[in-house]
Amino acid sequence: MTQEDGDLDGLVRKRVRALRLARGWSLEELARRAHLSQSTLSRIENGGRRLALDSLVTLARALDTTLDQLVESASDDVVISPVVDAAHGAMLWPVRSDPGVTVVRRRLTEPPAENPARMYAHPGREWLVVLSGTAVLLLGNRRLRVETNQAAEFATMLPHAIGAEGGQPCEILGIFDRDAHRDHTRRSESV
Fold this sequence. Notes:
Elements: H1 3-22, H2 27-34, H3 38-46, H4 53-62, H5 67-71, E1 83-85, E2 90-94, E3 102-108, E4 125-132, E5 134-139, E6 142-147, E7 151-155, E8 160-164, E9 170-176, H6 178-190
Antiparallel strand pairs: 1-2, 2-3, 3-9, 4-7, 4-9, 5-6, 5-8
């Protein structure tokens, strides 16, 4: 067993114990739910028993998690630096745990395009929070004011546009799923 394997082994044991305690369960309760003896579970948590795949699958199911989440290695890359898109006034951060999701920070100074032909519709979902100022979200036939610390979430199949209210700058943080991010990226490249 390599040092890395030993580190993962210890990490998995700590996760099992931490998840059990977070749920307020005793050894007896988790053992009952996982169909293991209390003694076996105690040895798994304390390193007195080898971690076997069948036990891990059973424990993951009993703890209402996945085997992948239970055994994923700790990443040293906790801090993520943004990719700056100066041409569009945006910073982008990929979400490593969900490669289809991107977080975007953007400063808006122009009002949204009022012309329905300039509104966009595409597959996906968007979520945004206004960090400062007031944004105007055009969503179908609706005009919504989204103020500082308010958020909006919507299906992007509705025609939509977003901008700053009254030309006063606002800053937003948006979370885009894969489809929404792909459409916004394509649109930015064609502008």
